[in-house]
Amino acid sequence: MNVSRYDERARGLNACMYAYYAQQIKESTGVISGVCLDAGCGGGYLGLALAKITNLNFIFLDISSAMLEKADTHIVEDGLQGKARTLLGDVHSIPLEEGSVNLVISRGSIPFWKDPEIALKEVYRVLAPGGKAFVGGGRGTPEIQAQIAAAMKARGIEPPNDRKHRDGPPNRMMKRDYNGILQKSGIPQFHVTKGNNGMWIQMGK
Ligand SMILES: C[S@@+](CC[C@H](N)C(=O)[O-])C[C@H]1O[C@@H](n2cnc3c(N)ncnc32)[C@H](O)[C@@H]1O
């Protein structure tokens, strides 16, 4: 992944997509204060969008220090020093205490997790009683995707081509049986949706 190009697009052309998912997360989970973990955060785009509409404190976790450098920069740009910190780590072994997080969010990272069952159990472990998780991936609604594609075209950028990336991580994610994985994990409360805004798993504790 080209970190700089990904980051530039996430903060620019794709910003509306993160704002859309942040709103969805706020409405679906109702968690607007406490601690939020953005797992596989990249440069922190989803959490940073959620910070604009909630009073949450953030931990931005990623396995890539290059991505976390971007997140650190954006935390300062968005004036979130004291409310947000970065954490280098693997979602399969989250370096946080059990029950220490009120909300776990994650977008676009789950297709890269080597063992989603272990990783989802980790997400559940760090949730506090009453906590919620909203984890998955997608590129927004068809309207948002069309808006981004038009903006890319106007700038002479080739939009993402699903056929070309037929066997890529996002398509693998859409095909995977997350209901089966979650049943096997023993996590008692979960809900999986697959639709034109992606694949999303919601969990409660
Ligand atoms: C496609 S990017 C998504 C970044 C960001 N969440 C977004 O929505 O733009 C996938 C991210 O997941 C991270 N990642 C992949 N495997 C991971 C793991 N096992 N633990 C933590 N982060 C991971 C990558 O380093 C990368 O930053």
TrEMBL record:
Residues 37-134 form the Methyltransferase type domain. One of its GO terms (molecular function) is S-adenosylmethionine-dependent methyltransferase activity. CDD domains: AdoMet_MTases (cd02440). InterPro entries: Methyltransf_11, Methyltransf_Superfamily, SAM-dependent_MTases_sf. PANTHER family: METHYLTRANSFERASE, METHYLTRANSFERASE DOMAIN-CONTAINING PROTEIN. This is Methyltransferase type 11 domain-containing protein. The lineage of its organism: Bacteria, Pseudomonadati, Thermodesulfobacteriota, Desulfobacteria, Desulfobacterales.
